[in-house]
Amino acid sequence: MLHRRIPAVLSLIAVLNGGWLQRAEQEPILRLDAPLVLLNVTVTGGDGRYLSKLEERDFTILEDGRPQPIAHFSAEETPFAVAILLDVSGSMERMLRIARAAARGFVQGLREDDVFALYAFATQFAQIQPFGSYPEIEPEVWSLKAEGYTALYDCLVSAARDLAARPEKRRAILLLSDGADTASRASLEDALREALAASVTIYAVDLMDEASASPAEVLRARSALRALSEQTGGRYIRDPGGAQMDATFRAIVQELGHQYTLGYYPPLERRDGRWHRIEVRVARPGVTVRTRRGYYAPRG
């Protein structure tokens, strides 16, 4: 039986569609405060298949071009936690049906031990379904209407913080949106900082309705979605319709289950509050390696 949270969901529908509550003040953006930097790494061969049975000695981690000793290595297939972010703002009016179907299709492809939470955002945002293993999304999602502005980055910040508290080392966000943020207090950089601090991989599904947006708006929104996915080691997905959508989501589930998890302790002198570039290399010819591109160090 699905987890039921009727009062909370009804309140959410009123907030998202009516806009009668003020959005809570955003807490200050947090930075990475744990000394261990975790990296979820996807490795594929020239044929696009995931490479398994790699060992710790096959990997090299570089921070700002300098090799770092590997302090943590995990290669086993393991459950993951994913936050699904559903855009129900006014700009999604023509695409909301596709977005809801995409969320449902993704959930139906999860494995028994994987957990997900479902968030919806418009002018405000809220968590509709808490983290857990469910066979379906809450049916109240189908009652949500596309209205209001878009607090995409605020919702990303909140979901990343929730994921940071999860025990799973493999964490992801599936973002179903047109990418046009119009209401957040947080910025794109804030959202990226929070996702990187939580070791979250973002898979951004572009649902832009080009007929209702200017070329400049389309470019700006798509640039944001690409930045969120590429900087965190995820994937930017465009036009996910029909069988293609189902195949793409199955590939994401497979990818999250077959990642390698590596960790290292950066030098103490790097605790300077700045961006530090990360590169992971694999000692195999013709492979593609994908992981987050860096992190923001804490100060002091």
Concise summary:
The chain has helices spanning 6-18, 96-108, 152-164, 188-197, 215-231, 242-257; strands at residues 37-44, 59-63, 66-68, 72-74, 81-87, 115-121, 125-132, 171-177, 200-206, 235-238, 260-264, 275-282, 288-290, 294-296. The chain is of the alpha/beta class and 300 residues long. The strands form three sheets. It has a six-stranded mixed beta sheet, with helices on both faces. Strands 4-11-1-13 form a four-stranded antiparallel beta sheet, with no helix packed on it.
Detailed description of the structure:
Helix content is 27%, strand content 26%. The chain is of the alpha/beta class. It folds into 2 domains: 37-77 and 260-296, no CATH class; 78-257, Rossmann fold, CATH 3.40.50. The strands form 3 sheets. A 6-stranded mixed β-sheet has the order 7-6-5-8-9-10, sandwiched between helices. α4 (188-197) packs parallel to α5 (215-231). Residues 1-10 and 19-33 have low confidence and may be disordered.
Low-confidence stretches: 1-10, 19-33
So what's the CATH class of the largest domain? Alpha Beta
Number of helices: 6
| N-to-C CA distance | 48 Å
* Shape by Cα distribution: globular
Multimerization status? single chain
- Averaged pLDDT, please? 87
Domains, number: 2
Strand order of the largest sheet: 7-6-5-8-9-10
Count of DSSP strands: 14
Portion in helices: 25-40%
| CATH homologous superfamily (4th level) name of the largest domain | von Willebrand factor, type A domain
Strand content bin: 25-35%
Please name the CATH topology of the largest domain: Rossmann fold
